[in-house]
Amino acid sequence: MTTRILALLTLAILSPLGWSRTITLTAEDSDQMAIISALAPRLSWAGVAHGPYVYDSGPQAYLLPKKAILIRFPLDKIPKDQRILKAELVIQPTYVAGAAKIQVRRLLADWGTGVCHDFARTWPKKVEWSQPGGRGALTDRANKDSALIPIHLRGEHTAEVTEDVELWYTGGAPNRGWIMNLENDLGAVYLGSPHNPSQGTGKTWKLIITYEPQ
Amino acid sequence: MGSSVSRVYPRGSEYLTRWVYTSLWLMTSFPKVPYSMRYDLLFLLLAAPGLLHAQPQTTLVVRPGTLPNLVPVMADKARCVALSEAHKLLAFGHDRTYPDADLSLFTLDAKGMPSPAAVTINLPCPSDLHDKKVGNYATGLAFHPKLPILYVWQDINLAWINPPKLDKEAKEFDHLLIYDVAKMPPKLLVQMCRDREVLYGQNGGGLAVDPAGEALFVPNLRESSNAGSWRFGRYLLDADGLPQVLGDEEQKLPIAERCAKIHEWKTEKVSAPADKTPPDFVNMFAGNFFGSAMSMTALGRDVCLAGGVKGIMTYRPNDKAAALNGLAVKGHTGTMMTVHPALPLIFAVRVQSDFIACVQHVEGYLTGVPRHWVLPETKLLSTGLAGKGKVVAGAVSAVYVVSFNDNFEPVGDAIAIPINAPAGVRAMVYSQAFDLLYVGTDLSK
User: What b/e readout covers B359-398, taking b as 16+ CB neighbours within 10 angstroms?
Assistant: First the structure.
């Protein structure tokens, strides 16, 4: 009996200190998203072209040359005073053509309402990207890749993004999310749209974070 | 109904609370629970935060209350409404089950209060359809912003099938009606929009005129070659508020002659507008019973926001890059929306859903991720504004009021106001000039 009580107490005392936790965020948790395109330079939601001059937020997100997906995962689910052990970004392409590699970079610019290919935001006032499409290095986005994901097959692809999540969590840089585009604008990748509330493809976009108390 | 203290919960928090309390209750209330099971419970208790999965929506507490600027208007079985502040007129469209009239027109006094009695109108319907008791009803109303002109979109209670069965009488049913409301009773100037490019049998279909009065956006059109490919469109309006469908010379004729020419034109040609949304087939316009655009707001002659079965759409007839853009909102049903006049906000209600979707746009460009403000155990039917920082949603026998702050987040409790509308509050409109919210209610029996 005493042993059991001691074990219970030990567990209760040590568990918050020593146990690592893993949380999975999906695009349904995301608070900022956009799919921008040079072909429709004022749209925030140029996810898929159903036909000539018709763009929609879903159900697919076509990652084609001169397009980009912007997504921010809020990190407020992680309690204070934790250490980020690992963070993985998981995407699930449904189609690939050519030698497509998805380039993932941290966004630096303060993008938001009205974001599109031409502007980082258009409300309350218009703010241009330093380079259209948010591709300006060191101004719009980081100058190095957080991840480069070669896409050869359909199915889940995972990229380690621990450094970015740690940077955001510790306040080393504001969390403005990632911009994802095709490296050198080559190939084509189709994904379930991160914003597709009726069909739930947002759940295929995952940010899996493992942390432990410091 | 809860307390007056505002509570805003992220989804999932209620489950955590239940989880913790249930676990503690089990741990403490049952002395006979084996210790090994208590360890399991303790483990689950400690692990609970890691199992949480939150979603970006806010569930509001609903409590009874009042809205001082709400004006009930006796418009039985009201299903649509339009307001003209310029001409101090309020028009309600009735459901087809209301036997006395299809439209009721109320005049507003200097303080914006509606007249006790309304001028009623029965909408024209081919006699064959009328005799068969098919029933016609208005789905959308819009006033010209400057002229005393009322636009009406009406439909008939015939089932839409693919391919459509166009009986002679259905072919001759005019969906768009244009009334001169300068004098009472109103005078029907033009009736048009018929035949194979127009959908029938729809439960919804909005209308919108732009603030300058240069364009009229109309719903429920289709590709003539494909009954499953839906669309909506635009007529440019002339200086008298009539659609510009005639040639340059005919366009110079006096208004009475132009109306006669439009009648000739519609019987000779397809009378759907030349400007229509690009073909989309079933993506944004998946088959439904709410029409291609259940609600509409024109921001300008070249920009129209519309609520469709997938969510919100923007139509820009002259945009060569993106004439039609869609942003999905949760659910697959009709969308009633209202556009804030100053903020970049659209409030949308999915018919029979329990949330108000707060969608952002800038100059009609849809942007951001819709936020869902959940009103538990409701089935919402309509939406509107009710003054600065207040949005309203109509449901069966109630209107709900939600206040929001400068960050476009809901604040405080939602207020439930009982309304005598057993079929649901579907027609309400806010007047900025009078700071009044007009709500169509049934007559007390």
Answer: bbbbebbbbbbbbbbbbeebebbbbbbbbeebbbbbbebb
